[in-house]
Design brief:
Layout: E1 5-6, E2 12-13, E3 15-21, H1 53-72, H2 81-90, E4 107-109, E5 113-114, E6 120-125, E7 141-146, E8 149-157, H3 168-184, E9 199-204, H4 216-238, H5 243-247, E10 275-283, E11 297-298, H6 306-318, H7 326-330, E12 338-340, E13 344-347, E14 350-351, E15 353-354, E16 360-361, E17 369-372, E18 382-383, E19 388-391, E20 407-410, E21 415-422, E22 429-439, E23 445-452, H8 454-459, E24 470-473, E25 485-492, H9 495-504, E26 537-544, H10 561-570, E27 578-582, E28 585-588, E29 591-592, E30 597-598, E31 602-605, E32 610-616, H11 617-626, E33 642-644, E34 653-658, H12 661-664
Parallel strand pairs: 11-22, 20-34
Antiparallel strand pairs: 1-2, 3-8, 3-9, 4-8, 5-8, 6-7, 10-23, 10-25, 12-23, 13-14, 13-23, 15-19, 16-17, 16-18, 17-34, 19-20, 21-22, 24-25, 26-32, 26-33, 27-32, 28-31, 29-30
Helix pairs in contact: 1-2, 1-3, 3-4
Length: about 675
């Protein structure tokens, strides 16, 4: 038996989970469909019934704790090695004492999906009045149920940094404990008191032989045969767990997170050189990009903050560190050697940019639609306050309006799912724990910009990390198995992307060389700027493509125009007279795993804000150099990015296609669940 196997997409896994249902079953969503059914069951993006990874985690955790206590024995004074190992696997909530922190989870279950098509049907039930013994009025219910069948999934052991664990002893101990726990499970899903959800859960190191039969009796026989084989395998495996081996099993940590990003005081990187890279993402599952929670609703932003990407990138470069260069890698973030932008949505290879607040549109929203620039003849139009614009300028484009669509406008459709916590004592839903989780949909394409210093490039052999797709777990609820999976590929810039960065300061959209439009300094693309004296000035447009955190002079929340001006002054740039301001603000909240609580709220200038200023020629060059890194605080995490004199801002009107859900999906996955 190998200690580690891989799936078809080369994702390392630690074992397989097979669920054989021998009765009708269903994991309820808690919601119904008007005019059809009162309670629907969980379905995957393809419409087939699934058992969520969170459900598998819950049922196996309950039984694993019981099995661990039995393995430790009744002696209260003896070490609870198996119990501690179970707590290490599944995590542990804080005990409520001052300074207590949660123990992180180290086992991750994927959703279990049907090995073959499983039909879904409706069942009818009613409530009986205990006094009369007859049916109660208005209590007829229609409930979705899936037929008997087989579902398969996987589990992976991860460390606190999110990397897969390859230690053979730890993996085999997890297979043993989870295998025993699985055999103790008798039912999954709702309606178990009425006989629904009867199943056999088989946790093994290797994928089990497929069962192509479709009758319930064949499923029962298959479950019996595989259970017997698994029991024999577990007995052999149990013999290898000597007292010495058990004593070496990991347990809950007592302290901080293992993976650290270094300390303040690392050597500052030289930003005049370095390597500008692109990080392409395809979401394999819904991802929750943390926003301010609202009551029982977990909302998601429509982009991924650099705050989410930076830890994963730092772990990636840390995996390739060389002897003698550890300090550069350890202090990559605090020393300014690694920067990453927010990941923004992509349509047909074009990166979206937050709609500038100066754009307007008509009251109608039919596709195609016209976006109007900030010109006097466009007064009276309706301001556009959210969404993204995907600007696709045509070769030979002119300043005038075009009848052809030159890109898209819209925002990614969030996917919503209800979930509830389960009371482990009663097996029923916990009161007051029903939540709605919103997430970016699976199949969505996104893009972020990365900068690596020359020192980090050499120390971490970053060139060896390029062009290789890797799985990442990102966002909130990433350890549930249902959310947080993405395929990330780090690559060099294309020529067009490099040109856009040099001309506009890391803009997501490009302007083809040789077009008829001119830049803000009056030069045509590809031409050099006219000679100017150092004292000459020009009007420059700054379009912020990410939120900006600019502290006040009293180190308060900030966010005013004066705070923004002071932030640029600290970078040696005098913005001069401000000609126009279009600014909105956003509350920024985040969660601290170390403190097990929310961090202090920040007030940020919202992405899409824009200002026009008059600067010297020298300061304009400084703005172009600063744009890929950002202004203000937390710039390494993607805050403060902006574009300089983007050609979109100089257009009086722009015709675009209104983006649909399919436009945001990769070509490999245009299906999907419910959109919002």
């Amino acid at each position: 038996m190998s200690a580690e196997t891989t799936t078809s997409n080369n994702t390392p896994i630690s074992g397989h989970v097979t669920i054989v249902f021998t009765s009708d079953w269903g994991v309820s969503t808690g919601v119904g469909q008007a005019g059809r059914t009162h309670s629907t069951i969980e379905r995957g993006s393809n419409g087939h019934p699934v058992v969520r990874g969170t459900v598998i985690t819950g049922v196996l955790r309950e039984q694993a704790m019981l099995a661990a206590k039995a393995l430790d024995g009744p002696d209260e004074k003896s070490p609870k090695k198996w119990t501690n190992f179970a707590l290490w696997l599944f995590g542990q909530d804080p005990d409520g004492k001052q300074g207590s922190v949660p123990h992180p989870r180290h086992v991750l279950f994927t959703d279990a999906t049907p090995a073959s098509s499983i039909p879904v049907h409706d069942t009818v039930s009613l409530s009986i009045d205990p006094t009369t013994g007859t049916a109660r009025d208005q209590f007829l219910r229609f409930t979705e149920r899936a037929a008997a069948g087989i579902l398969t999934g996987t589990f992976t052991l991860i460390d606190e940094a999110g990397a897969e664990i390859s230690d053979r002893t730890t993996i085999e101990a997890a297979r043993f404990l989870l295998g025993v726990a699985g055999l103790m499970v008798q039912g999954i899903g709702s309606g178990r008191s009425g006989g629904d959800g009867e199943c056999t859960v088989l946790v093994s190191g290797e994928a089990l032989a497929a069962c192509h039969e479709r009758s319930t009796s064949k499923f029962v026989a298959y479950a019996s045969d595989q259970s017997q084989a698994l029991r024999r395998s577990l007995k052999k495996l149990a013999a290898s767990f000597t007292e010495v081996v058990v004593n070496e099993l990991p347990g809950p940590r007592q302290g901080g997170v293992q993976h650290r990003v270094g300390t303040v005081g690392g050597s500052d990187a030289d930003r005049s050189g370095g390597h500008h890279l692109i990080l392409d993402l395809t979401l394999n599952s819904p991802i929750v990009s943390y926003e301010v929670p609202f009551s029982n609703e977990i909302r998601s932003l429509d982009f991924l903050r650099g705050t989410v990407l930076l830890p994963w990138l730092h772990r990636l470069v840390s995996s390739k560190k060389q002897e003698g260069n550890k300090a550069v890698i350890t202090n990559a973030v605090t020393g300014g050697h690694l920067f990453v932008s927010d990941a923004l949505p992509v349509i047909e290879g074009i990166e979206g940019l937050p709609v500038p607040l100066t754009l307007k549109t008509d009251k109608t929203s039919d596709s195609p639609i016209t976006l109007y620039g900030d010109f006097s003849e466009n007064k009276g139009k309706i301001p556009v306050r959210d969404g993204y614009v995907f600007f696709d300028p045509k070769e030979g484009d002119s300043e005038g309006p075009s009848t052809d669509a030159q890109g898209w406008y819209g925002k990614p459709p969030l996917r919503g799912r209800q979930t509830t916590a389960i009371n482990h004592e009663t097996g029923a839903a916990s009161k007051g724990q029903l939540v709605l989780v919103e997430a970016l949909p699976e199949g969505m394409c996104m893009r972020a910009h990365v900068w690596v210093s020359d020192e980090l490039w050499k120390a971490a052999s970053v060139s060896a990390l390029l062009n290789e797709p890797r799985e990442a777990r990102l966002g909130s609820r990433k350890l549930t198995g249902t959310f947080g999976s993405a395929t990330c590929t780090l690559r060099n810039e294309t020529n067009d992307e490099r040109e856009a960065r040099s001309r506009f300061g890391n803009a997501g959209s490009t302007q083809p060389v040789g077009t008829a439009s001119t830049s803000a300094n009056g030069t045509a693309p590809g031409e050099s700027a006219p000679a100017s004296s150092p004292e000459s000035t020009e009007v420059v447009s700054l379009w912020f493509k990410s939120d900006v955190i600019a502290r006040s002079d009293m180190l308060g929340p900030g966010g005013t125009t004066d705070d923004l001006v002071r932030a640029f002054e600290r970078e040696g740039i005098d913005l001069g007279p401000i000609k126009a301001v279009s600014i909105r603000h956003r509350r920024v909240d985040s969660w601290s795993p170390a403190d097990n609580g929310p961090r202090s709220s920040r007030l940020a200038i919202q992405a899409g804000s824009m200002i026009r200023v008059r600067v010297s020629v020298a300061d304009r060059a400084k703005l172009l150099a600063l744009a890929p890194f950002g202004i203000g605080e937390l710039t390494a995490q993607g805050y403060g990015r902006f574009a300089v004199d983007h050609p979109l801002l100089e257009r009086k009107s722009l015709t675009v296609t209104k983006a649909t859900r399919q436009d945001f999906m990769s070509s490999a996955d245009t299906q999907g669940g419910e959109g919002k």
